[in-house]
């Protein structure tokens, strides 16, 4: 018995074969729809098996394979056309790849060939999402092929080629991925990177470092291809998404990869990339695999992250969680509670061994505080008092932790210098932690008792340690460690109770013994710290300044006296600061005092003056100046001379007579001693900032017969801008930056031009602090005031003239990026940087345009003409208000255009200038429309101000009625006009539409105008609108007073309201 005929949806009979083919298509499409919504891998595997079986069934149907392949192609096109439901669409691609490779293993290659052909056809499609899915499909095919091949090779080691994907098809797919790595869209590049990253293995990694050119794509076997080189080349991708994908996919199994990722964590321009790189290092790189510098830089990077919220805390906790285990030699945390508590008790001190507090003290200190808090919370002490946490730490006797009862271990235990430094530094960090976390005084008192000995004991410990370690000759590195330990001990002093006078007296004696002991090698930093601590704790009040000064003078006297008379048993007070003629001063003057003694005395004096407690000369300071400072400036030791001049400079800043007397000495030293130049420049700069540049310049140029003696001081700084000594160059530039921020002088534009060029000189990159100084100075200077922006405008011609002259001789400026210099001028003179009254004065860009057009007019074939045209195109004229000025610029622009002939070389210039002229004309039309609209709205302005002026009119309505008959309305009108001009009545309802009037033609003498603008410093908050017109600066457009309603009209309306109110009151009565 035969079955009946089959019918199509339209009712037409179809054959059984057609029905089977239709079923193949429907089942395939249903499989794709299910895969799109599937949630589990098991379900996807089930769908994949059914799709594979469907192909096998289609072999028995005439035309079934063709229908299967056509439906598969159609389903793939639908899958890859949209970006929504991405996970489901990737599942469809996975299903297709699995089926194709499985069938290819059984000799049925048509589906696999179709997928490869689909990738080839769609790889260059203009639809971004399709290209990204093509990359995903190609990666799936290559990766699954590798997995299948590896599995079959393990099952049958004798078989050489187990890959279901032929080499030709593999080459084709990899060529697609290689091409898409250069795709213009980052979404496509990221998918290509993910696909290639999945092919990494140890063989490809080994090959990658034997390949010198990572961008040369060759293919023999996918497994052997240098995938890592391809990924590494994309660590510099312009897209942060691609860089993040690369970071996540690198295997980090080589030192080179780790260094690259660390570099990205520290220096990438995007916060997201730095965060991703840091997280990757924390999770996948062992602490010991990082150098000390890398560890410290990473810690500082985490500390400095902009997002200081929860994400920052999470990253820091992840870092501590991994690093603490490594520091303690643990692969995993202990399960036992006691062992876990013991682990966290010593974890922070063990982590300190992997840090570098000697060179990065603050970073190490901050990390220690975070680590202690992390351990405290993990031990379960986060919600209780800190003293319980301290008790738990003190119970670990094996640790380097110092406390009240074992602090003598610092000397008696036989620790190395590094262990001593770590122990004292950890002691100080623990004290800082307790001080910051203790909520109650009782809690801090208990922590203080458990961690610190008595002050007498501590002073003995400190003095004994300093005597032992600072009196012996050590290598430089070992001495630095011991000196660091002493500095940490000094910082612990601040934790002691101020209510222990005997203890502080002991400490004062200890400090004086240390400072006066010439057998000890004291550094400048150590002496500064000792003196600063003495002032902070012994003489904290300004009233005690003289007492402190007298004590330190006695100390220096005793040092000199012991040096001159080693066998003397009695000392006369203040011999070194007495009036000349006594024996000590005579011996000092004769040079019998050892250089080390002079150096120790000037170190103490310098540290004393750097406390900033003495701002007025007295007899003791005069004695110090004459008998110690002046004698130290001629010492043989250059460090001694530097300290002496620094001390002299501090006194000169506060005393004008000292500054006047020492200026000539500073000037001569500046010429003679190259090593002292940075110090001399700093002194001159500080004097100019405090006493005023004109006065110091007059002292500096005294006796000169030059045309401009007041300019000599500035030229001294300018002379050393290009010094070969980096410190001198940096100091000169830094001082000039300070002086420019202090005052704006039109005569200094040449030096300002030098600073700008120095900022863009590639050689400046070799001096990081100089580069940072100049890069910071330019925007700050531009934002400071409009006068500063006018100085920049005046510096424009000189800057480019310098570039022209230097280019002729092929000098250092020939390496400067001139386009960047032009862009800097445009952005630094933008009115968007200004605020308040400076912004109301108007933009300085019109004056800059005048300079640019003048340069083009003088030399139309200037080599920098493209730069000038680019500057004009970057300038925004939407905030310009002076129509007359804009029209003058339009005329100048058209004149410059007429100078150019229409050639291929100049066509770009003409287009840029024409575009600029069109921009100006558009602005003029906009202003004229605004003025016309404002005039048209004058008649309506009366009603606009009714409500705003009502209260003010009511106040004077009685006066208007009383005086109107006497003066016929004149006096009230005059009074009201005065109030109107003062702008006290009200504000217009629409302040965004100011009334615009035409200003006079701007004169060409820009320097004269700038000088007048600087001297006058007019602030546009006038009390009378007539004063605005009389005192109007020539640099800005006129801003009229607020237009109000006619006074009589307002008074009449107010009168009606007033009479109406009075009538209503009389009726009520």
UniProtKB/TrEMBL annotation:
State the residue spans of region: Disordered. Answer: 1-20, 965-1004
InterPro entries, sorted = ARM-type_fold (IPR016024), CND3 (IPR027165), Cnd3_C (IPR025977)
Q: Name one GO biological process term.
A: cell division
- Major location category of this protein: nucleus
Recorded protein name is: Cnd3 domain-containing protein
- What keywords are assigned to this protein? Cell cycle, Cell division, Chromosome, DNA condensation, Mitosis
Task: Tell me where in this chain the Nuclear condensin complex subunit 3 C-terminal domain is found.
Answer: 600-875
GO CC term, one of those recorded:
condensin complex
Localization per record: Chromosome
Q: Which Pfam family, an example, fits this chain? A: Cnd3
Q: Which domain of life is it from?
A: Eukaryota
Q: Which organism is it from?
A: Loa loa
